[in-house]
Amino acid sequence: MRQVVRTRAAEIGLSLVDQTKIVTAASELARNTLDYGKGGHVRLELLRNESRAGIKLVFEDKGPGIKDIDLAMTDGYTTGNGLGLGLSGSKRLVNEFDIWSKPGEGTRITIVRWK
Asked: For the chain, what is the domain count?
């Protein structure tokens, strides 16, 4: 997945720094989808309008969901063995970040990085 995201980000002209940011965020969110969501899927879409291009990724799972999104977005908070920077760090690496989650139904996280 990392290679596909990097390739598509390069195709729309993202700088190497911006490619690295979107790949890092995507990698972290994909890992969370597997580890906490017990699997799921990701959709990648290239965005274009009159003035700019971007890459959009939607990570979705049918796992246990997140009980407290505000707490989960707090630096240092973790329910696993990590540093607790996955969600909050991913948010800082992208231009747009949206999270929806409902306990017992799953989680959907959408990120966008613009050129």
From this structure: 1
